[in-house]
Amino acid sequence: MPASEVFEKRPSLVIETDLGRDPDDFFAICYLAQLRDLKAILISPGDPDQVALARTMLRGLDLDIPIGVSRPLGQEKRSVGGWYPRWVQSRGGPDVATADGSGVEVLNSVLRSGPLDELFVCGPPKSTGQFLKQWSDQNVRIKLTVQGGFLPYSYLSDLDPQYRLAKFEGLNVCSTFNLGGAKEEAQILVTDSRLQAQFVGKNVCHTLVYTRDMYDKDRLRLHPVHVGPVSNARAIWWEGMDCHFSYKEGKALHDPAAAVMHVHPEIGTWVLGRPYYERGKWGTRPPEDSERSSRVLADVCRPILYQHLVALT
Question: Which domain holds residue 154?
Fold first, then answer.
């Protein structure tokens, strides 16, 4: 086979997201769609306007894959806000759409069609946790990255994170939206031995802010006039960034940072720990002898993370 025809097979991936609220999810999906073989999108809770947004994104990404939801089908509540409706309209998308089934049904269909290499969770892990609870196959190992959790500074006796936030000093546990939104299912992600799990929590995510000044410089540097034709994912990424920075001065990079760490864990500093739930909040503690541990992000090389993120590499 000629060298030009040799390529590395991209890992297969399913994303669970609460797309439609914070723009984080939009940018994380664009990034991962560029670099992974995306097999399905699972939406929490899965309101019809969230499904419509996801369908518009997938059509723009030239992907024909199923969408699953954790909310029972047929419920008409709407939850999409911000600049999303304007972007969907600009792309000719519908206001509402119907999912292909429940998240568990969609995950079952993905597994029937072939192996699944990876999971990425940037929303309450309702469908993922429910699926794992009833999935009987024990002869698999799946890479999982979760945006959620919290690593207290007291855990880092041998490390000194580059950035520490006063609001987290002295805390052992902290509220965290994604894990707190489906606490029973989240604990399955912590304990399931089939998962090679890593958690990217707010102790790091809250220190990562992409500013308008950074955006202006990157937009000029990476404009198609300089870099040539861009992929669908990069085009949609910049459309979203244009919308966001038309009225915002900055963007905290929670889900996009976790997406980069999913692809490039080597740029992070990780510790082994056991995420745990306590009275509505989450923390990390040392695992006991019989317990499974996960990798939890303690720090990251920020310049390289930003470089990967804006170039979608």
Answer: 9-311
